[in-house]
């Protein structure tokens, strides 16, 4: 098991980052009429871990009794989709954006169904069963031992991840559901870009900001992990990891683990290799600076394909490439890089074929850079 | 306390949803018109539009209940919102079926006029085709049904549809009225709010009453814990002392700081830092600042709003420069709505500001 999963905190008090938030969340966990929640912040800031710890605080250790099922949902309006569903007696978690263009239907039919039904614990199992045709894995029959669970609530929780990835129509479809069925259900959501969330949704929840951890906080977590694993982590190496982590705790822990496999004990001159996709982008930036020609563009196209087939999101490609190019060019060109990256990345969000827009950005850069070179050095 | 416990646990926004149109705060234009309709026992087709949390859904539900009463509600009122499939065929079928039901039943305690109300809530995402179909349906059944169309942006509703309705704009709730409502809720719940805290609450909710109520509720949880922790005798003492010295008793009251904490508002200092880094006219520094801002997870749309304010108030810039930056901010805001990457967009804004400060 990865360090990441092995030492993932389960309780609110175990969270080592943003300790300031903990008392607030504890208060919320205790109230019976808490609102819907929207956790937002960059990736690797611990949003999901926090949501799950909050759940545990609310319902006790039973929420860890997770069962994962692959369910096939057929829509009344035709068509069907398969989704992974994680559930405990108190909550259910699924990712509607996995259904792609069908995300609206998932919310209109499935989430609404779940939200409007009585809390899972009280609900007889048969109703759920008849609603959804399961494909895999039998769930263990739920025992009706309400007494054993420490905390009883009138509502269940639905966790929706990455709501900023949902289409606007799907987000719209959540609106009234969130109001009508608050009695039986609370929705906890997380997202990275809060600007991708429509206003009416933001209006319906309490936003909870989860910033990236500070270097100090990352350090604390690194040392804690190392202590449990019996790893000796020299201070200078901890600093290197933090520097490479981009304030992403997940990334920091992954780096620690792979560095340990590379070479242990750690040494002063040990380097940390960026992941392959980053290496490729660094190389691409280099190729663009070296020569500006249609032939080059053709070579680069293959790299873009490679990145996309490895599921590197287009916006990440744009960002990394931009940051690399900025380091390689001077003031005026830097501005152009930013302006056009912002322009084409936005376009790629409106279109459906990211490769076209990434390529257009590269072509634009090449032509501007060539002009710049000929004006300044010819 | 016991009484409160027995009430079902629903968030305050639902608990304090207006039950009658008289309770609807601020939207007097609509309320007056609807009150009139209670007397005449007739209503036209209506269209409500306005920002979230201003009372649109509440108003129509309240008037429908007042017209028909809870008993007839289900047979006389059909609510279709964005959580319902609303393709052309579905609308046609549902409306047809519903319109054919008889509307003669009466509840003596309510006017129960002889028509049915079809509420089409959250219409912003309804396709043009569906709206066109709706137009024909509206005509077809205009005798026995009244339609109420609700949306945030009236531009999303096609003209032929909008022109068939009496239009009402729901305005953002002004501060004074919002304060009244919040004070009323606070009083009912037995909590106290500092004047400054109310202001902070206004600032962070921007005319959205629902949001303000949610923040108020969440904040109140934080103080209620603190007060119950202190011993009862102490608390009593504190309350007696209160009018003589408010400052020494921060725990029982909702303070500005607490509101800031809970609402996650962007502090002005953050925006100042961003603009300062633009003035330094180094792209590298700008990039670092932007990355830091993104990591801090502050809401970028809010940062745009605050930047706009600061830019407009900055006398160092001439009008042309200000206009240029404002235009960029508007472009970037709309790009963000399309889902564009926040870091890249923020950096572009930075470049624009930087250019104008040179
Ligand atoms: N004018 C108002 N008077 C009293 N309470 C209001 C008013 N507007 C909003 N509220 C409060 O906010 C909650 C939400 O209001 P409502 O559902 O009517 O908003 P809406 O205009 O339909 O918003 P949306 O566009 O997001 O659907 C209500 O339950 C109530 O607590
Ligand atoms: Mg509404």
Automatic annotation (TrEMBL), chain A:
This is Replication factor c subunit 3. GO terms for molecular function: DNA binding; DNA clamp loader activity. Pfam families: Rad17 (PF03215), RCF1-5-like_lid (PF21960), RFC_C (PF22534). It comes from the Eukaryota. It comes from Anaeramoeba ignava. One of its GO terms (cellular component) is DNA replication factor C complex. Transmembrane segments: none annotated. Keywords: DNA replication. GO terms for biological process: DNA repair; DNA-templated DNA replication.
TrEMBL record, chain B:
SMART domains: AAA. GO terms for cellular component: DNA replication factor C complex; nucleus. InterPro entries: AAA+_ATPase, ATPase_AAA_core, DNA_pol3_clamp-load_cplx_C, DNA_Rep/Repair_Clamp_Loader, P-loop_NTPase, Rep_factorC_C, RFC_lid. GO terms for molecular function: ATP binding; ATP hydrolysis activity; DNA binding; DNA clamp loader activity. Residues 42-174 form the AAA+ ATPase domain. GO terms for biological process: DNA repair; DNA-templated DNA replication. Keywords: ATP-binding, DNA replication, Nucleotide-binding. Belongs to the activator 1 small subunits family. This is Replication factor c subunit 4. The lineage of its organism: Eukaryota, Metamonada, Anaeramoebidae, Anaeramoeba.
């Amino acid at each position: 098991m990865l360090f990441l999963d092995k030492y993932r905190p389960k309780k609110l008090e175990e969270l080592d980052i943003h300790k300031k938030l903990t008392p607030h969340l504890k208060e919320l966990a205790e109230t019976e009429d808490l609102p819907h929640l929207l956790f937002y912040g960059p990736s690797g800031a611990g949003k999901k871990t926090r949501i799950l710890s909050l759940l545990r605080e609310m319902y006790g250790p039973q929420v860890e009794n997770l069962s994962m099922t692959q369910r096939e949902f057929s829509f009344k309006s035709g068509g069907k989709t398969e989704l992974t569903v994680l559930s405990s007696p108190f909550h259910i978690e699924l990712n509607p954006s996995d259904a792609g263009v069908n995300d609206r239907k998932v919310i209109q039919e499935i989430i609404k169904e779940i939200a409007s039904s009585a809390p899972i614990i009280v609900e007889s199992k048969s109703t759920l069963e008849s609603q959804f045709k399961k494909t895999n894995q039998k769930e263990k029959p739920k025992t009706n031992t309400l007494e054993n669970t420490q905390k009883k609530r009138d509502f269940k929780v639905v966790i929706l991840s990455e709501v900023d990835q949902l289409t606007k129509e799907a987000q719209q479809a959540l609106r009234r559901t969130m109001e009508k069925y608050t009695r039986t259900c609370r929705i906890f959501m997380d997202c990275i870009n809060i600007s991708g969330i429509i206003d009416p949704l933001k209006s319906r929840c309490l936003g909870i900001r989860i910033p990236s951890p500070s270097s100090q906080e990352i350090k604390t977590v690194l040392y804690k992990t190392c202590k449990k694993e019996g790893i000796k982590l020299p201070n200078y190496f901890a600093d290197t990891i933090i520097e490479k982590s981009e304030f992403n705790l997940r990334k920091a822990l992954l780096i620690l683990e792979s560095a340990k496999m590379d070479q242990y004990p750690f040494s002063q001159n040990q380097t940390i290799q960026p992941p392959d996709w980053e290496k490729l982008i660094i190389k691409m930036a280099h190729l663009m600076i070296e020569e500006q020609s249609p032939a080059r563009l053709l070579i680069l196209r293959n790299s873009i394909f490679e990145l996309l087939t490895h599921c590197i999101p287009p916006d990440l490609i744009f960002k990394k490439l931009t940051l690399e190019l900025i380091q390689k060019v001077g003031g005026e060109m830097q501005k152009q890089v930013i302006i056009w990256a912002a322009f084409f990345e936005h376009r790629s969000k409106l279109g459906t074929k990211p490769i076209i827009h990434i390529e257009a950005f590269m072509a634009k850069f090449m032509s501007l850079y060539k002009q710049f070179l000929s004006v300044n050095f010819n | 306390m016991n009484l409160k416990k027995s009430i079902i646990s629903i968030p305050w926004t639902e608990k304090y949803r207006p039950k009658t149109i008289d309770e609807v705060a601020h939207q007097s234009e609509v309320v007056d018109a609807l009150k009139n309709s209670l007397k005449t026992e007739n209503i036209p087709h209506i269209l409500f539009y306005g920002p979230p949390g201003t009372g649109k859904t509440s108003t129509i539900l309240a008037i429908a209940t007042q017209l028909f009463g809870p008993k007839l509600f289900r047979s006389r009122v059909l609510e279709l919102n964005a959580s319902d499939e609303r393709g052309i065929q579905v609308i046609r079928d549902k409306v047809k079926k519903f319109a054919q039901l008889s509307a003669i039943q009466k509840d003596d305690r309510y006017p129960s006029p002889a028509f049915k109300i079809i509420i089409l809530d959250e219409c912003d995402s309804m396709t043009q085709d569906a709206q066109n179909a709706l137009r024909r349906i509206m005509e077809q059944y205009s005798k026995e049904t009244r339609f109420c169309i609700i949306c945030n942006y009236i531009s999303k509703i096609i003209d032929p549809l909008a022109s068939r309705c009496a239009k009402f704009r729901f305005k953002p709730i002004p501060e004074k009225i919002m304060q009244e409502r919040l004070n009323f809720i606070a009083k009912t719940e037995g909590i106290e709010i500092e004047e400054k805290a109310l202001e902070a609450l206004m600032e962070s909710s921007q005319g959205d009453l629902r949001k303000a109520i949610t923040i108020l509720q969440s904040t109140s949880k934080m103080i209620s814990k603190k007060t119950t922790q202190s011993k009862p005798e102490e608390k009593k003492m504190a309350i007696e002392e209160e009018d003589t010295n408010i400052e020494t008793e921060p725990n029982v009251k909702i303070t500005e700081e607490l509101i800031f904490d809970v609402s996650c508002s962007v502090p002005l200092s953050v925006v100042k830092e961003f603009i300062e880094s633009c003035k330094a006219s180094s792209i590298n520094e700008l990039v670092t600042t932007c990355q830091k801002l993104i990591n801090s997870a502050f809401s970028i749309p809010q940062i745009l709003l605050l930047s706009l304010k600061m830019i407009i108030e900055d006398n160092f810039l001439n009008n042309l420069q200000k206009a240029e930056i404002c235009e960029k901010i508007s472009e970037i805001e709309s790009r963000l709505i399309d889902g564009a990457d926040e870091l890249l967009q923020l950096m572009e804004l930075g470049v624009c500001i930087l250019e104008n400060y040179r």
